[in-house]
Amino acid sequence: MLLKIAWRNIWRNKRRSAIVLGSIIVGVIAIIFMDAFMIGWMNQMLRNQISLNTAHVQIHKEGFNDSKVTQNFMPDYKEVDKVLSENNNIAHYSRRTITFGLLSSASNSSGVYIYGVDHDKEGSVSLIEASIVEGTYLTGGEREITMGTKLAEKLSVSLGDKVVVMVNTPEGSIGSDVFRIVGLFKTPSSEYDKSYIYVNLPSAQRMMEIGDNIYEYAVVVKDYNNANLVRDQIIAKLDNRYEVFSYEDLLPMLVMQVQMMDEYMGIFYFIIGLAMIFGIINVMLMAVFERIHEFGVLMSIGMKSRKLFAMVVTEASVLGVVGTIIGVVIGALLLWPISISGINLVDFASSLDSVGIGSIIYPELVLGKVITTIILIPFMTIIGAIYPAYRAVKLEPVYALRYV
Question: Which of 117, 127, 67, 61 is nearest to 94 (CA)?
Answer without folding.
Answer: 117
